[in-house]
Amino acid sequence: MSEAKVRVEVAGRELTLTNLDKVLYPRVHFTKGEVIDYYSRVADALLPHLAGRPLTRKRWPDGVDGPFFFEKNAPRGTPSWVRTVTLPVPGSTKQRETVDFVVVDDLAALVWTANLAALELHTPQWQVGPRGAVRDPDLLVVDLDPGPPAGLAKCLRVAVLVRDRLAADGLTAYPKTSGNKGMQLCVPISGRQSSDVVSEYAHRIAKELAAEHPDEVLSRMTKALRPGKVFLDWSQNNAAKTTVTPYSLRGREEPTVSTPLTWDEVAAGEPLRFWPADVLARLEEHGDLLAPLLERGPRVPTS
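The structure assignment produced for this chain is given below.
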């Protein structure tokens, strides 16, 4: 494995890329250079979904067969031109009162992040303003988590139920795979209600659907109840929670991607998993299917 360093210019910034031939996905020999290439090529679609959102990175320095760690704080050596924002982190396991989060707003910062072997990108459902003030959530997310033997096919069926229930309240849901075993529905909302209000609404919807479809849907977090059902994880709307960002890679045996879907694909009920090349081709065909998330939606009902 080469230890060579390569100096490059990205969007007017000088970067040093390292170990580009290091294999991060050994099963399919997918390298760090290919990770950086993917994130560079998907940037036009990805960056708007990262903009303004404090970023949690999940890093695999030695590849997906090795150990990983979550990183919230800006690491030592973060370039001065990478945007950071200092935010409180109550209940931190590392006994910190605040964390200097990275906010990836441009291509150079994205490439810098990928060079750190940050395969997965996770963001909250809210943004920070230009001076770092935390805003109310502009997204509602329902995470569909299947309990074996249920899988993605069952998630797709349940997703239609969730979509229709949200539509009854005037909310429009947009589907994506998680890149793992489940999927998420993302809903643009007004940005003028607290995370507690949004989370309470998502919990109410989950309980309603679980009562109506008890053999398929679960709203309780108890793991013993999950086999064969799809857990609607409403808690993702808690202000402290993050969700894998659209177009993010996942740190699995293969380089799967959290990929936007059409509702026709969801209705077809066929499990779908996508690699970087698939995602880039889909962008050529469909554009960003989640572009509507970048516009404000309605308020969530409170009763």
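Interim note for the steering committee: The first strand starts at residue 5 and ends at 10. Helices lie at 32-41, 43-50, 107-115, 152-168, 195-212, 263-268, 276-286.
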